[in-house]
Amino acid sequence: MDTTTSTQSFIRPPENLIVEGIPPIPESLAEITRGYTEFRQSIFMAWHPSERAMLVRRNTDTSPQLFLVRAPGALPQQCTAFEDMPDTVCYPPHSSTHFMFRMSAGGNEQFQYYLGSLETDAFTLLTDGISHNSDARWSNAGTTIAYVSNRRNGVDMDLYVADPADPATTRLVAEFDGGGWVLSDWSPDDREVIVMQWISNYESYLWVVEIETGARTLLTPRPSEGTIHYSAGGDFDHTGNGVFAATDRDSEFIYLVHIDRATGVERNLTGAMRWDVEEFVTSPNRRMMAFTTNEEGISRLHVVNTDTGETRSLSEIPTGIIQEIAWHSNNRDIGFSFSSARTPFDAFSVDSITGEVTRWTETQLNDIDVSSFSMPELIHWTSFDERRISGFLYRPGPRWPGRRPVIIDIHGGPAGQALPRFLSRYNYIIDELGIAFLYPNVRGSSGYGKTFLALDDGYRREDSHRDIDALLDWIAGQPDLDPERVMVMGGSYGGYMTLAVAVNYPERIRCAVDVVGISNFVTFLTNTAEYRRDLRRFEYGDERDPAMRAFLEQISPLNNAERITKPIMVVQGVNDPRVPVSEAEQMVARLRAIGTPVWYLAAKDEGHGFAKKSNVDFEFLAKLLFIEQYLI
Prior knowledge:
By secondary structure, this protein is of the alpha+beta class. The chain is 18% helix and 35% strand. It has a domain at 17-37 and 367-630: Alpha/Beta hydrolase fold, catalytic domain (Rossmann fold). It has 10 helices and 37 strands.
């Protein structure tokens, strides 16, 4: 891919970008990749409260915005036009004149809630404008919202209520200690709410809080030994005397239960399962529940009658990824987002009685034949301790014979999971450059049971590095993959893993791309947003303990940078509250000091990853140049 000539012009980076060490990007590269960068995917966000219409979030020329789709296949009507991306949208239960959404500025994740009107295009700020606010829920009457916020001290997530028609009515209901409090549901009589106390990825508990007094009752007591996790909060049943939840109590995997509030007895609704329940949502009349299971990366949608326990799988939905499930007010239709390797995200619905699937939006494909895109292959390899590790491999097509270069892309989290997803613009790298993409689910990934999830905690952090070392052995044994041309890439925790692989196995890779990655665990834990800090300590270790601090310093890539001998590209959002920009800046400075080639791209108007299209496009083109120069 030779895209440079003496006569061609180059792309001017957006003014908000910091571009250091990156060669000029030819305009011709943007032209030949354009079809792959223009997919206008749609994410289902909310049903209209009375009509059979839905709000979706759709890609635009700037950032994803909200659109109203009045019928399946209808032309989406744009509802917002902000510089930033609206998120978590919902209508009040009985009114369609306005809807609520949240949004942060420049990726800083100080989320604010707004009330929007479809009739006037006016937007009213509901929160204080400066704090981190989350989990807003309408009361069943539609007259009040509840949400959690750290507005009191910037650390603790407390419970607030307000009349959206008058934000001045905002009232503190209950103070909580820590940043791990998540609001789930209102009781049928609007007198109580369920709040989940999130302690770690393995431990959480459900509380019931009285709205009038703020008094709270622990619904799920702590066990005398071990921990219990309630993964997605809870929903009240139609009587208010019971709660639906998803838990891993006495199980490797997460399953659905009904909890009797009077006795605390949990009734299993889904039986013995060897896959996690991921999402669940009760119907408006609270008589039915829809839930998805994660079957080694494949989503399955099911419905259960909460009175009889009868469960049915909605098998008419194609194989792929199902997200953002929600019931329509008719208690029959379920809206969701769907994607697969050859299907960009679009909005769909399914009739829970007949199983009939309806597609509401259709992504513009820009004359790109997505039917020829690589289908992911589920692969397995054996790690250093004989543990079986899995991942998804996208191979180039038959037009690319011989042993092909490989990009290993490691997910974040660390309790995330690589899924067989639509790769969007990365399909250009597979189709037009003949490079394979490999997405591993190393130990610590979700979806494989709670034992697997905990295998990289604390002092076992380096065991996940060894999973990649074993993967490199597996690549070497494949006749169509080139072990001499491997690039490692990842975002967030995956960015840390990228740097760790570059430190520990430099002779086994050609180059690496670190996106918003942790370079030093101690400085990360010191500087990450305060309301997140304790939750991260449960995962990585508490840096205030001298022995753990010494271990974290020992394994941090920044303190081992002299072992990084292959070129690195570092991408960072300046406003990132999770992995602060200082993590990238100190890594780049250290690499420069020791003479390792480093490209640095930072955005002044982004946070934990890039969201604005102009930034995403430039990042992609810079990665292509990096791949051409150092991998191919």
